[in-house]
Amino acid sequence: MKCSSLFVDESGKSSLAEKANEPFVMTGVILENTDTDTVAGFFNYIKLKYGLNPLKPFHSYHIFEDDSPKNTVKIQDTKTAKQLMAHLGDFISVIPIKICIVSVDKSEFRVALGVTSIKDFSGTAERKRMREFPYEVMSAKLFTWFAQHLDDDAVGGIFVDARRGGEKELIIALNSFRDPKGPLDNATSKLIDEKCTALCFAEKNFLSGGIEIADFISWTAFFHARRTMNTMDHLKLSTTWKKIKSKLDGQSIMKIGKSEVRKFYKISRNGVHKYLKKP
């Protein structure tokens, strides 16, 4: 039986109660298990070439952005960082991976739910949980995409670099997707139940080439989603983004709009989510 892995990383704040005008991005990278060691080996070679410890996880923010005194891994030399950026773009363009990036505009998401104030997220446990609803809708897209890409005789495991609190939301989401009475149609629910056989969460120091690649792609996509790519012109990040984009399904980010949110939660056009109807 063939086995594949979906590596998931996120960028931005997931909570609808924080940075409402900023997008939230989730990235999925599919890698066949037979290719995992080879791809990880090449990634480690790149890390070694640029003086990075191959036994430490590659976190793009710390390598390229973080100027805090405690961060000792940032590449300070712009020329070297630019070369690494180009090398990573070339690497991603040739390795055997599939990529899907999902993003939401949190302000639109709130409108679709019928949220008019941050106070709507207080009170009952159900209302508080609404803050993390983007996880449900976005993971539904990623997990369905993954299951549909698996061959008839294949199964897959999902590995997530999620932040604190995200683990619980994704477990709840996956269980609901498997439920025939859940938010997905019966055929999709059955497919996810049969194909997605494991859900694992990576700790901060977990070493995985797939997670590291997803981290870099998600970090890059977040600049595009925020329209701040020009802030990284000194590293030619836009050139690397073009190489990533060429490998995306449909060659574009999958943006979830208000109509999809309403459909997922069965909200009428001028209605509100059922949790908001309760006192």
Describe the secondary-structure layout.
Elements: E1 2-11, E2 23-32, H1 33-49, H2 60-64, H3 78-94, E3 97-105, H4 106-113, H5 125-129, H6 133-149, E4 154-161, H7 166-178, H8 186-195, E5 196-201, H9 209-226, H10 237-245, E6 254-256, H11 258-265
Parallel strand pairs: 1-4, 3-6, 4-5
Antiparallel strand pairs: 1-2, 2-3
Q: Care to describe what's here?
A:
The protein has a single domain, classed as Ribonuclease H-like superfamily/Ribonuclease H (Nucleotidyltransferase, domain 5), CATH 3.30.420.10. The protein has a 6-stranded mixed β-sheet with strand order 5-4-1-2-3-6, sandwiched between helices. The model has no long low-confidence stretch (mean pLDDT 93). It is an alpha/beta fold and 279 residues long. The protein has helices spanning 33-49, 60-64, 78-94, 106-113, 125-129, 133-149, 166-178, 186-195, 209-226, 237-245, 258-265, and strands spanning 2-11, 23-32, 97-105, 154-161, 196-201, 254-256. It is 46% helix and 16% strand. The chain has 11 helices and 6 strands. Helix 3 (78-94) packs parallel to helix 10, helix 4 (106-113) packs across helix 11 and helix 6 crosses helix 7 (166-178).
